[in-house]
Amino acid sequence: QWQHRISSFCVRNIDTGQIREHPQADLLFCAEDLWGDERFWGARFKPGWNPDLVFTHNYICHMLCVSRWALDHTQRPTTEVAAAQDYDLTLKVSEIARDICYVPRCLYHWRVHSGSIAINHDSKPYALEAGRRAIQAHFSRLSIAVNVVAGSMPLSYKVNYLSPPSSVAVIIPSLKHNEELVSCLERVSSLSGELCHEIIVISAQDEENPPEALFALATKDARIRLLSVKEPKPDKAMLANKAAHEARSEALVFLDPSCVPVDASWLDELVGPLARGEVGCVGPLVLAADGLVAAHGLLCQPDGGMVPVEIGRPPEQPGYMTMLAHCRDVVAVPSCCQAFLRSRFLESGGYRGEFGVLMGAELCLRVAAYLKSLVVSEPYGKVQLQSEFLVSETFAAANQRMLLLAAYPGIVQGDPYLDPHLRQGGGHFELRDAARDTLAL
Known about the structure:
Elements: H1 2-8, H2 17-21, E1 27-36, E2 39-44, H3 51-54, E3 65-66, H4 68-72, H5 85-96, E4 100-111, H6 125-141, E5 146-150, E6 157-161, E7 168-174, H7 179-191, E8 196-203, H8 212-220, E9 224-228, H9 236-246, E10 251-255, E11 259-261, H10 266-271, E12 279-287, E13 293-295, E14 298-300, E15 306-308, E16 328-329, E17 337-341, H11 342-348, H12 359-370, E18 374-385, H13 398-407, H14 435-438
Helix pairs in contact: 5-6
């Protein structure tokens, strides 16, 4: 009787308005929560359609709605993906979908029990392999060479890209020569492998008389070039753009001297997603000087500001919906470390100095709006701030926020990757104060 009662309202309040407003939607999904012990718990307010997060685990899950048109244009799941048929179908439909919609309401209540995979991840061990095969097949259909392996969390995955950009230039723009710059260059030189063909340090200082420590590093590592810009009032945007034109590599990584890479995998992990044509910019997980998270991407605010995501958390924690442990698409990544294909960066027009500390965020918004590209925050190629300061976007002045808002007025509606039930003003995924009164439970 209890099971019958639960199943009778497992799905309710279906919002057909979304279908009417988006008649070409071929894939729809909604928020969900869990039911167990005679109560509701564990609501999942999702970030909307987020391809890079989909590649890490099937967060779409319930309730999945697919159009007849999409079903007629996709192959049915095979026994190879048994126990992950919905995952396989989601990936297949995403490849051809004319529109994908997220309904930010809890229209599905997921009943859990001791044998449910929702709380007992070992109840279906074969599901992990089935999901891995579904993701691997997705990339095979797109002719992208990857190796999908188990992720750090239960029933999750990590995509290793096997055909990253052939060469990378690490560009370090600096307004002055100091100890931070020397330390940054030392770490980049020692932790960047064969993929790194160039390390360009560009500054407003006299290149003919660099500090002895910089000169010594440049002498030891043939990849290092010391450049300067002799302008009355140079800024970091000007320095970065000039270095991008000087570089000869396929990909560019802009690294602020306030940051240092954490380990030798940083560059491979950072540029890997650029193997997909739909990715325009990639940023790493940024750690603070104390080892806690400084940013896993940025949330845009209705006033034009940018807030670091999951700031202050230990990096080993999975975070909300385990997003801290996984790659995800975001509206912007901090300017202290950003990776682009050189051709896409030059096509975009590069950084614009008038946006100040928001110049990196503005470029991310421009890449997404005009190049129709994704911005990815990945947690594996970490960089760490050398000082106790936060990422620079935190200190955006009012005029910089207003300038960004004027250029991208859609910001006033809030972050497109944030469910409206969650707080717009915080870097953590927390319920809005009035959310409990508006939930459709």
